[in-house]
């Protein structure tokens, strides 16, 4: 009996829902943006199985320590998908990954990304990667590789998620951290650009319960809800590296007058600051020193929440915290202003007897200092320290 004929020109993988040609087109569309992040240290170009970075650039360090971080953007991508706007999610990814590296004083070297999707739409993937490349260029990070994976049946046709990992380097003698912090150090707040990339499950819950569509105009902001909520994460790496270099040595030793840094992400202000303070120290962050920007107030009102109840979820206008030598605090504020970042003092580090009451301590397994927010937020009608 004759065997049934087969169509040898068909592609069974395409029939299963994976379009490799679309993936190739996406790579072509993103190539130029990725190449712009490459310096002479990057070898091999785009499309290799592995990215190559010339480690001989580390010879100038006496004892180079590599710093690494990995993260994603979270459910903020659901809003990008809802309004079909994908060119800023990459900035959020760089903010979540690379800005964690600068916390220890490290200069970022390179980053890789991973995009999982239900179906490859080349222009969409290219938009995402162009955003990542833009963020890498702004932070001095080479985008040396990445992967786009199509998962039909696991993810919906319009669904995707993004993640990334980055590596940086810091001289061992210049590393920042809790061990540098001492009594009397000043805590500076650095303004956020908005929600950044944390707390979006609460945001989406509030918006959905309010019957709001992301395409609806948000009268408080003069744009749509989707565009407001997609405001990209501010990138702090380059300004902070410049600040560390500009301030010079601390009064307590031959290391930077910037003693420790905290990236305000999941967990909010108190929990993240506590992680970069030494055991036995404490800080009271004074709410009266700033007014949370309108996006936080509007969302809290819509969700029938107090701002205080969201402190463990949203950054409330503070994207980073810097613990600095008190003698250099004014200089730090001025330097950051020159880089377009509003900064102000929110507290002082103490090592004496801690006041009674509840403090945040031990966040994410770090047995560091103790922090609590005190007082009342500044008047919403008063000037705030929002994005500049």
From the spread of the alpha carbons, the general shape counts as globular
In whole angstroms, the N-to-C terminal distance is 78 Å
Determine the fraction of residues in helical runs and give it as a percent range.
25-40%
What percentage of the residues does DSSP assign to strands (E)?
Answer: 15-25%
What's the order of the H and E elements?
HHEEEHHEHEEEHEEHHEEEHEHEHEE
Strand order of the largest sheet: 3-6-4-5
The SS-based structural class is alpha+beta
Spans of at least 5 consecutive residues with low confidence: none
Largest beta-sheet characterization: 4 strands, mixed
Compute the average pLDDT.
Answer: 89
How large, in whole angstroms, is the Cα Rg? 23 Å
Helix count?
11
Instruction: Give the tally of β-strands.
Output: 16
Report on this structure.
By secondary structure, this protein is an alpha+beta fold. Helices cover 29% and strands 23% of the residues. The protein contains eleven helices and 16 strands. The strands form six sheets. Strands 3-6-4-5 form a four-stranded mixed sheet, covered by helices on one side. Strands 12-14-7-15 form a four-stranded antiparallel sheet. The radius of gyration is 23 Å and the shape is globular. The mean pLDDT is 89.
